[in-house]
## 1
Amino acid sequence: MNNKLRYILFFVLMLVIIPNSNAQDPGTENLKHLWTFNDGTANDQVGDAHGEFNGVNIFVEAGDLVTVPDAGTLLANSWLDVPGDILDLGSYTEVSVVAWFTPDAVNNTNWNTIWFFGDDGAGTGTGSDGMALQARRNDNHARFWFTSGSPQGYNTEDGVNDDVNGNYNNDQLYFVVCNVTANGVQGELEMYYDGLLVGTTPMLSDAGTGKDNRIEKISPNFGRFAHSTYAADIPWAGRIHEIAIYDKALSVDEVAFLFDKGVVSVEDQNGQLPETFSLLQNYPNPFNPGTRISFDLPKESPVKIKIYDMLGKEVAVLLDEVKPAGRHNIGFDGSKLSSGVYIYKMDTGNQVFSKKMILLR
């Protein structure tokens, strides 16, 4: 191998393992609501917008909100309600909704929604004041949309479509950030996919249809996770790992920070700390290309988590910092790796743990 090719391969490898150097921690000052499901409940760990299960096929398992299809219909029919009046998104001048999720690749078939805040016009769409992230649509692109002012009909939405990545419907880990910015009176919509900006759309008004798209017009009627947008749609199936709401529009560098950080949820809110150090099996496994790795710390400890191929070559560094006691979850994106068996190792200074995981394309 000549030197030029060696330099190219080294540069590509560094892009895989080194986080974005411009990444900026958004902190917690503007973090208003956070659902990690890490304590076995659907409670809001920052605010008071605690979730309430609707239907029997929804539950919390291994730190995830899980919705599964009904055995009789093979369709999802359960979702999580959160109180829109406590969220009160209309009191914000900007908002950012951050979501980590892994869809069921088979049973999302028709206009499925990860989160929806506002009002659906009694299920008809007419007179709705809401915003939603539709991960699966029949027109084959995910969409972040917004409509307010009690407008007439469906044609009053402003939205960002992901025409590059299509539907967010594969059995993989997704990271999607949706912003409503205060850029002028009306503002703009922004959507990020896995840390990269998908697109922006201006929020517009139309007096003839009653459309008045401003964040302060959002209805406090409800909040829903893993639901649908209108009555004829089908609720979403899969695993929601984390949803967070900020009362600001996250910058591109702040979105990059959260993506580089991965799904990391800290100390159990019940105070039940792990008794021993442990590294759990990744989920899903096999995976393509995203998966989650969970680990337990009985006390604050330095933690390194690295990925190796079967030849012992280091291919990624997921974590290298001091973490507090509790259960933690971190996402791994293997999209730049080949199919095969990989080893992930956790080093806490005094103990080293390792497990195998399988990337299947």
Note: The chain has two domains: 31-259, 265-359.
## 2
Amino acid sequence: MKKKITISLEENILGRIDTNVRQWEGKNRSAVIESILKEKYWEFVDVTVIIFAHDRKWDNRPYPFSNPKPLLEARKRTIIDRQIESFTKTGIKNIVLLIEKDSTESFEKELLNKYPNIAFDLVEINSELKTGEALKIALTRKNTSKNLMIANGDIFYGNLDIEGYYNYHKEQNWDISMLLKFVLNPEQLWNVAIHWNKVIWFVDRPKAKQTYLTNSGLYLTTRDFLDQQDFWDYLEHTYFPKIVETENVIGYVYSWEWEHIQNDSAYERVNWWLM
């Protein structure tokens, strides 16, 4: 819960804040001040974010870029930078990045200087490795904590409220939750059905649309839950369609801009949104 307060600032400090307002799309003075104070004073629950940043799949033609998808720029900032800003502004300190071989230097150059207070664990894997197998590798890393957030690195989120998502997940006290989004083309993505907030159906790229709800590529769960699972394949293709039938999977519907960057059209839409 937020409370409204009034503060007085020196003009030169206010000028610097206004400079940041111009640099941070969608921000105002209050949001910039809150972000600065959260970075210094606010402690988020112990969460490790695991990001799949190794995928080079691109629809309809060979992958057209020299950089991995998370390092694609959208209006002068990379996709992974925009993602990590959403995670870290809530106080998250540990991030495991699963990246393709020989890309460590590129990710270090992009992230380490921008986020000096974040403990990054860059793990090189084969770009063709299945997401379930990649997750298994991530879970062997020493710094992963009890609570886990799992993310696809080729997703653009606009104004993502990580704090609200996490609080909802904890209040419901279910095994795993997934971020959901209403879209016009779910047959090109993952088609999801919910009953109240329980996910009851999950299909990877169905032949025809059944609902207009899709999986947004962000999940919350725990180490204890994952240690009991046998999911060493593709998460969206085989694991989630099975688990929603037997386990407590909850959906959290996300209302802002979202895009799975899998083809030229999706990439162009992200750049248009950020104009």
Note: The chain has nine helices and 13 strands.
## 3
Amino acid sequence: MPDIAANMDRTAEITGIPGMELFSEVTGTDKGMREPDVLFDIPMLDGESGKVAFFAEQQHDPDADLPQKVFDLYIRVREKWGQRTTCIVIYTGSSPNVNTYVESCFGCKVSMEFRTYYLPEKDVEELRADNHPFARVMLAGRLALDAGDDIKLREKYAAEIAETTAEDENKKFILDFARRILRLDDPEISESVKGVYRVQTLPLEEYRKYIKLQNARLEGREEGREEGIEEGLKKAASSMLARGTPLQEVAETLELPVDMLQQLKPH
């Protein structure tokens, strides 16, 4: 939404509105609780603020039902706050033409048009060439659509995302999204691919420690010796075990023997 971005006041803080479930009846699924909606106050250069709502939902319903859901979302936000509101739908369905809702009743007619980011029509090579975090996430989604249920393609695309995503503060989030969208928890996915993602989606502090220790192993850096490679790995392992990470997964991720980890397990 470049026109919105151009009119935002970049010096002001964007404020999230916590606990905002516009569709409160959507409180649970077969996979547990979820919060489908997130709302933000967006400060603008003209001094006013506007609302941007992010409505996240897996598209299981028929495409034709989506415009009414977006309309209902818009009306609820507008009614509650009475402010300018915009919305965008990141859409993965089978038809690109879902951006208009029209309702009429005995001569009264309302119509709403909204923006869609229709993922299936996005160019894969353009997404590959763009290092912006949003483009990386969209690339993972686009490749997941292309791969479908093909195990080998999902593995190939997962390796590509891991190898080509820049080392920065966004990498863990991007790879964690890719792990989910490419369904890497599938037991048929190879352990080598899973292992890459296990390491790179560790909590950020543990990931940095892991990288430092690996560099120390490979290069014999002085700081690695000073910290004590084995002691550092034990600390990382203890932290992972305390969070409930399975013993075998810790052993594979940190390359430590299972019998040593047995001694580190909390009792």
Note: Strands lie at 15-17, 37-43, 49-55, 85-91, 100-105, 108-113, 115-118.
